[in-house]
Amino acid sequence: MTESNDAPQGKDGFDYGDAWAARLELVRKKIAEGENKARYLLAALQRQERFFTLWTKPGSGPTWAPRKIEPGSELWPPGNRVWRPTSLRGLFAWVPSYAEFRIDLLLADMAASHGPFDVIAELGCGYGRNLFNLIDVNPDRQVRYVGGEYMASGVELALQIAACHEARERFSFAHFDHTNPDMSLIGPARRALIVTVHSIEQVLRLPTDYFHRLAQAAPEVVGIHIEPFGHQVNPALGPMTREQVKMFASRRWNSNMHNIAHRAEADGAIAIDQVSLDCFLPLDPYNASSLLVWHRK
Ligand SMILES: C[S@@+](CC[C@H](N)C(=O)[O-])C[C@H]1O[C@@H](n2cnc3c(N)ncnc32)[C@H](O)[C@@H]1O
Q1: Ligand 1, atom 1: nearest CA belongs to which residue?
Q2: Which of 150, 270, 272, 283 is a good FRET partner for 46, with 20 to 30 A between their CA atoms?
Q3: How remote is the CA of residue 126 from the centroid of ligand 1, in Å?
C-alpha cells in the first residue's frame, strides 16, 4: 500500500520510520490533551489521513499537506472529492471516495471459517491498524493479536494505542523483519493465522525459505497475504498491471513472493488454497493487490 496517490513513495522518497513517527506525534498530542481511548485515537488518525497526505523527504522530515483536489472536482459536503481513482482487474476505475475494501471483515470471516485460532499475527503491521480494526469485528474473544513491524516508530505507535485499548492484554507488538522472519514473535500457539497487508511489497527479495519459516510458527498455520503480486503472475492482466510492473522495477519492490510460495508448496511445506488477482480497491490505482491463501502441510 503506498501512502497516498500524491506522495513520493518507496526507497526514493518515502521513509516509513518518519511516517510512523509523524503519526506517533499526532497520537501523543491527543493523549496529552486527555484522550485515553484507543478507538478515538484511531479515529483521529484516520480522519487526519482523509484530509491530509503525509510527505516524507530524506533530510527534511515529514509534513502533513492538504490532499490535492483537482479544480472543478465534484465534492462531498465535508470537502472530500466525490470520486477517487482505483483499479480493478488491471483496469483504471473511479469509485466513490468513501468506498473502501473491508480487510477487517475479510480477516474476521477467514478466522471464522479456518479457525478458531489462538493467535492472529500481522507481519509488517505498521501501527497495527488492521489488527485494531479486526478486533472490533471478530467476536472470538480467545484470540491474541500479535504485530511485527520493522520500524521502531511503528512498533512504538502500536504500543501507545494498545496501552489505551480496553483489550490491551490481548495485543503485543515487536520488531520483525521479513528478510529474516523470526516466528518466535507469536509466542506459544497451536493454531495461528498469519497475515500480511502490503508489507512484503517493500522487500525486494524474500528469503527462499520464507514460507517454510512462517509455516513452522505453530502446529497448524494458515497464511493470508493481501499483497501486490498479481503482476508477477500475469504482467499483462491490464494496462494498470503493465504500469505496476514498471513501478515495482523502479522502486526495487518485491519480485519473488509468488515464485517462492510455489517453491514452498513444491517442497511440501505449505499447500496453496487460493490465488485471486487484483481483487481489492486500492487507494493507489497503480498498486493493485491480490490474495494468496495457504496452510501448513
Ligand atoms: C504500506 S505499509 C503497510 C502497513 C500495514 N500492513 C497496513 O496495512 O497498515 C508497509 C509496512 O511494511 C514495513 N516493512 C518494510 N520493510 C519491512 C521488512 N523488511 N520487514 C517487516 N516490515 C517491513 C514498513 O515499515 C511499513 O510499516
Answers
A1: 1
A2: 150
A3: 5
Whether ligand 1 lies within 6 angstroms of the CB of 206 is answered as no
Q: How far is the CA of 78 from the centre of ligand 1 (A)?
A: 31
List % helix, strand, coil for the chain (3-state, nearest 5): 35, 25, 40
Q: What's the gap in Å between 150 CA and the centre of ligand 1?
A: 7
Q: How far is residue 70 from each of residues 65, 83, 261, measured CA to CA in Å?
A: 15, 11, 41
The one-letter amino acid at 12? D
Query: What is the amino acid identity at position 174?
Result: A
Q: What percent of the chain has pLDDT over 70?
A: 95
For residue 123, the surrounding DSSP H or E stretch is strand 119-123
Q: At what angle do helices 38-51 and 16-32 cross, to 10 degrees?
A: 120
Q: What is the length of the chain?
A: 297
**C-alpha to C-alpha distances, 9 to 14, 31, 164, nearest whole angstrom:** 4, 29, 31
In this prediction, residue 32 carries a pLDDT of 98
The CATH fold assigned to 103-296 is: Rossmann fold (3.40.50)
- CA 73 / ligand 1 centre spacing (Å): 32
CA-to-CA dists, residue 223 to 196, 219, 229, angstroms: 8, 13, 15
Question: What residue segments make up the domains of the chain, in order of their start?
Answer: 10-66, 103-296
Q: In the prediction, which pLDDT does 103 show?
A: 97
Is the distance from CB of 74 to CB of 83 less than 8 angstroms? yes
From 12-21, 46-55, 201-210, 229-238, the region with the lowest mean pLDDT: 12-21
CA 123–ligand 1 middle distance (angstroms): 8
Specify the residue with its C-alpha closest to ligand 1, atom 26: 126
Q: DSSP states of 57-108 as a string?
A: ETTTEEEEEEPP--TT--B-TTS-BSEEEEEETTEEEEEETT----HHHHHH
The answer, yes or no, to whether any atom of ligand 1 lies below 6 A from the CB of 149, is: yes
